[in-house]
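Hi Prof. W.,

I finally got the Putative F420-dependent oxidoreductase prediction working! I wasn't sure whether to trim anything, so I left the full sequence exactly as given:
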Amino acid sequence: MIALGRYGAWLHPVYDDSSRIEQAVEAEALGYGAVWLGLGQRDVSDLRLVERVLDATSHVTVATAIVNMWTNDPVALAASYHRLSPAHRDRLLLGIGLGHPESTTGYRSPRRRMESFLDTLDAEGLPAAHRILAALGPRTLRLAAGRAAGSHPYLTVPAHTRAARRLLGPGPLLAPEQTVVVDADPPEGRRRGRDFVAEPYLRLSNYVNNLLRHGYAEADVTGDGSDRLIDDLVPHGTPEAVAAALDRHLDAGADHVAIQVLPRPGDGPMPALRALAGRIFTGRSAVAASST
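And this is what came out:
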């Protein structure tokens, strides 16, 4: 299994490629075990950004989050994997998934599309151990357990992690994404969290249905979301408080948590990732790590 460590840095596509390469280099120096490259809906089957991040780093695992199965060609994706694999095999993890129906024209028979995509990757020799599925619901989690290294669910809570671990069993990798706000001002933290969650995620059926399966009521997911829902989906507070929230996923059965930071306007994610590094990596301060 590809090594991810306990924590990774999830880097949003709002930043340009050069910025994310710089962020990945610093995240590696800080001690994060993986960098997850958010990719959106576009065709990224050439894996050029992944290649640039791999070349700029030395030991951190580089994962895609995610390659969309509707907008990418599995044959081209496998060819890119084989191009990069000789030099970077132990550091390359392909996160793949279906996205959501509201943003994909022709979103039909999603399970059939996922199985067909995986069949092609198998035929092209892309190992199951080097891919991870963005699986939320029971059916896709079962598929992740049988045909990939495991699951990289997005916008979930520890209750989902606990249920996913039970369904996956002890072997497959479980690496949820967790969005956070590192800010000691509670109203500001909740405001940023609500802005992030309400639009688009509370308008997307797969995320809403998943939340309803894991302890939330219709009132929680209506409108811009209840305070409880927002605080659970986007923990906010001091670095210590956020670190404790991240650990709740590990306590629930996650192997790894991919941390996505919501910064203040004009800031990037690194100040918060530095502050968190000083809390989540035992015996290592963010300041010392960033100077290595």
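The chain has one domain: 7-182+235-290. Does that look reasonable to you?

Thanks,
D.
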